[in-house]
Design a protein that fits this description.
Strands 1, 2, 3, 4, 5 and 11 form a 6-stranded mixed sheet that branches. Strands 8-7-9-6-10 form a 5-stranded mixed sheet. A 4-stranded antiparallel sheet has the order 13-14-12-15, with helices on both faces. α8 packs antiparallel against α9. The chain contains 9 helices and 15 strands. β3 and β4 form a beta hairpin. The protein is of the alpha/beta class. The chain has 3 domains: about 90 residues, D-Maltodextrin-Binding Protein, domain 2 (3-Layer(aba) Sandwich); about 80 residues, 3-Layer(aba) Sandwich (D-Maltodextrin-Binding Protein, domain 2), CATH 3.40.190.10; about 80 residues, ACT domain (Alpha-Beta Plaits), CATH 3.30.70.260. The longest helix is centred in the C-terminal third of the chain and has 13 residues.
Length: about 280
């Protein structure tokens, strides 16, 4: 089964994809999120896995916008712990490293380690991309910051483990299928929807009150601007209930009366947030 992700081979997204499925799959890395959605919708892959938010840097806005605008459906959720490793060519040593290459966010998250070791930061387009560059242009004085999968994929060695400042760096991924090809038999105890509120005082509050009336627990609420309608917003909501539960069915019927453009983005098994010794394990 082919499953698409955004990034180079060895990216954290590929690592999360492999961990989630825990079985024989063929991962397909594509340069942009738009290309991942295109591959899914054109039936070039069976499923796609994309990051939606990170515990440190927040939401991945482009992926939320695409989730709302395209004909896809979220069928799984996975929380993946991000562990940054310092990767060098086989003959290198931590004492020889003068430069570190990686994505700017990864470099920022490892800033303390780099300062302590007097290492210059050089930004590249991707963590896995940086590892790929180092493997293609070996340099004893340069290291890449990336995943363990990067080390395995590009034949690099780990010079130092877990060099990020925060030990609770977690990314939430959604597994996506085509809207009309939802896999049978999946567990559905969490649902994501999006809607726009009408323009009158208290309109959003009225919409949120509907969830309270049906005793549905919200786990997330956020807004995103609607690109085609300047200064208008769509609200993304996650809640703990499956799409086929009678409470959900009646709640969404009521929500449709007080909101417009209500779209169910997905219904799936709630992912387990990594904690302590269970960091990174699949539910």
């Amino acid at each position: 089964m082919k499953v698409a992700f955004q990034g180079e081979k060895g990216a954290y997204s590929e690592e999360a994809t492999i961990n989630y499925f825990n079985e024989e799959i063929e991962t397909v890395g594509l340069p942009t999120s738009e290309q991942v959605f295109e591959a899914l919708l054109n039936q070039q892959v069976a499923l796609a896995v994309l990051p939606m938010e990170n515990s440190i840097v927040g939401n991945v806005s482009i992926n939320l916008d695409l989730l709302y605008s395209e004909k896809v459906f979220a069928v799984g959720e996975y929380y993946h712990s991000i562990h940054h490793h310092f990767l060098g060519v086989e003959e290198s040593d931590l004492s020889t490293i003068k430069r570190a290459i990686s994505h700017p966010i990864a470099l920022a998250q490892c800033r303390n380690f780099l300062i302590q070791n007097n290492i210059q930061s050089i930004a590249e387009y991707d963590t896995a991309g940086a590892a790929k560059i180092l493997s293609e242009r070996p340099d004893l004085n340069t290291a890449a910051i990336g995943s363990k999968l990067c080390a395995k994929t590009y034949g690099l060695k780990i010079l130092s483990d877990n060099i990020q400042k925060s030990k609770t760096n977690i990314t939430r991924f959604l597994v996506l299928s085509r809207e009309n090809e939802i896999p049978e038999g999946i567990i559905q105890n969490k649902t994501s929807v999006a809607f726009s509120a009408h323009h009158h005082p208290g309109a959003l509050l009225d919409c949120l009150q509907v969830f309270k009336e049906f005793d549905i627990n919200l786990t997330k609420l956020q807004s995103r601007p609607i690109v085609t309608n300047p200064f208008e917003y769509v609200f993304f909501v996650d809640f703990l209930n499956g799409i086929m539960d009678p409470k959900t069915i009646n709640c969404l019927k009521e929500l449709n009366r007080g909101a417009h453009h209500v779209k169910v983005l997905g219904s799936y098994a709630e992912g387990v947030k990594p904690i302590s010794e269970n960091l990174g394990q699949r539910p």
